[in-house]
Amino acid sequence: MPETIIDAINMALTEEMERDERVVVFGEDVAETGGVFRATEGLKDKFGGTRVVDTPLSEIAIAGGAVGLAVFGLRPVAEIQFSGFLPPAFDQLVTHASRMRWRTRGEWSAPLVVRTPYGAGIRALEHHSESLEGAYAHIPGLKVVIPSTPYDTKGLLKASIRDPDPVLFMEPKHVYRSVREDVPADDYEVPIGEAAVRREGEDVTVISWGAMMHKTLEAVEKIDVDAEVIDLRTISPMDRETIVESVKKTGRCVVVHEAPKSGGWASEIIATINDEVLMYLEAPIERVTGFDIPVPLLSMEDYYIPHPPRIAEAIERVAE
Amino acid sequence: MTKNTSQGADDLDAPWITQDDLPVKKYQIIDENGEYDPEDVPELTTEEFVDLYRWMLVEKRYAERMINLQRRGEMGTVGSSRGHEASIVGSGYALTDDDYLLAMGRETSAMLMKGVSLRDILLFWRGIDDAQKYLAQRNCMIGISVGGYLPVVTGIGWGMNITDTDAVVTAHFGDGATSTGAFHEAVNFAGVLDAPAIFYCQNNQWAISTPFEKQTNANSIAQRAVGYGLHGIRVDGNDVLATYHAMSEARELARQGNPVLFEGLTYRREGHSTSDDPTQYRDRDEVEPWLDRDPIERYESFLKSEGLWDEVDEEAMVAEVDEEFDAAIEAANAYGPRDVEELFVYLYDELPSELEDQLRELERSLEELDELEEYIERRPKG
Questions:
Q1: Is A112 at the interface with chain B, CB within 8 A?
Q2: pLDDT at B1 over 60
């Protein structure tokens, strides 16, 4: 059977731990149980308790510990169980991880990965459904990566572990097991900072990432618009070239993300288009996003998530 | 605030525990009057005994001259270490070159002992970013965010364990830092990991304007060690021998996988920094007794009792420190040239195109807008 995103994470971690003994994996419940989503299953048996470690329930110490390990020459891959629990660790990412190289003028660095499942749609309680990639992408020195497919997940995670700088790797847990494709057993990387064109088209550029990528593709299939669909894959540093080239061709654009609207990453994308290719635009750019509210609990979360009908309507309006 | 003592629990049925169950002693070798039991004195050579004195003079003279420079407008905001000399020197003297020292900024002589140059300390306080590069080359870092760097210390210790490195990492921080969540998580996790880490709290009893009693209801910082399953100690931080000896033992404990919470009890004689006026929040009456407990004078009386005072040529020592300081200022003044490129190129291993565009835009504006460079020139530099 083709692989899921969870399988791809496990493959990437296994291969990187085999390749490089400096790679250590840790977080809450990652070793004995293999993580609440089983992404790290089997790693402890394979690599032992020194390299695969269950930590106390301490997001600050997990992130800060990762910084210290990285400074000391290891390659930490930390898991924050849900991105809703990332805010306590945010300080460590902002205050130390993102600027260790800068602070010491290249003498020290923090090549670490923080993996965290993000996004709504899994019928959870509070703090299990956030998408705050825009807030993290705002931090200079921190790379933010969000895969949407199993193939990319493996390649991007491997690239993140090998990256000399800190990477926040946000995993679309809504599609952790629902999207499948063949993931090669080969060693390959998907480069950080390169978007992918998922569907070529002439009429409208539609930009999205993560779990929303699949909602976007579903919407595009149902309408009579020749949309070009871009999967951003890396939020920061952003692949401006792919966006600019596509908008030059189509002259129209819709950005879809699950995060709240105001100050969301769509704003940055639209500002980039404004800077680079404003004169090519034939219609105002639209955003289809979550709302400026906390993600509702399970009973009403579907009113929050940008589902395909909302996306389809926006694309059709912009295409007119 | 009422202290949690056994009093409130005496008449109750359940077996309540209180701070009274854990009286924390203050470890001291030389007392406030310069008295000591010769049995307690650590075995050091004459040279080492004199060296401890010299380092305390370095710390004191450095602090005095930094304040003078700041008042003349030749230095940014600085925090004086007056009163902390024994705490800084005693703790630093126990460390080796391979050890890591993550400091809060008031630990100059401890960093100098690890090979950091005085010039680079001056660069740091002048806000010249390269300073931390030179500190890092000596396994040192100054973390400005109070308490925030303690989890990084735990991580470095963890790395030493994984790589079987024979060294320790110490965090130096103040009493205020112990109220942060980062302190709790860092110390607790270090215990779980058996990390070779020493958490060295210079409890100088003031966090800017907040006294220790408002920082915590605990009688001591050291007692918390027990709660975390660590070794802990409260030391008279104005006694350089006690501080040095306990720190040497802490280093041994840490190397064996027993992290340590170390409280050095001292007193911040001056403001938090040159931007702070302590007369606004504390009485002169409180400060006076501490001025009489000068750590350097106390050690001087010890050296005299030991018949070692003849080995100390104080005048020559001060002259030497001044000479080194003059040379360091000269080197700091000559440091450069600098370029705005350095602000961009060190953020990532490889400069992203967006950032390169921003750098070029800044360079263009400096090139084309004559007023911009002039405007920046007119801005205060310290």
A1: no
A2: no
Question: What is the CATH classification number for the domain harbouring A257?
Answer: 3.40.50.920
- Number of A/B CB contacts below 8 angstroms equals 144
Q: Say if residue A124 is in the same domain as residue A203.
A: no
Q: What is the pTM of this model?
A: 0.96
Q: Are residues A76 and A222 in the same domain?
A: no
A60 chain-B contacts, CB cut-off 8 A: 151, 181-182, 185-186
Option in A61, A165, A237 nearest B154 (CB): A61
Residue B16 lies in a domain: no
Closest CA to B124 of B143, B147, B110: B143
The domain containing residue B355 runs over which residues?
342-378
Q: Are residues A50 and A121 in the same domain?
A: yes
Range of the domain at A266: 196-319
The answer to whether the CB atoms of A60 and B181 lie below 8 A apart is: yes
Residue B2 banded pLDDT, cuts 50, 70, 90:
low
pLDDT of residue A276: 96
Q: Which long-range contacts (CB under 8 A, 24 or more apart) does B54-57 make?
A: B54/B312, B54/B317, B55/B89, B55/B92, B55/B93, B55/B109, B55/B113, B56/B85, B56/B86, B56/B89, B56/B109, B56/B240, B56/B295, B56/B296, B56/B299, B57/B296, B57/B314, B57/B317, B57/B318, B57/B321
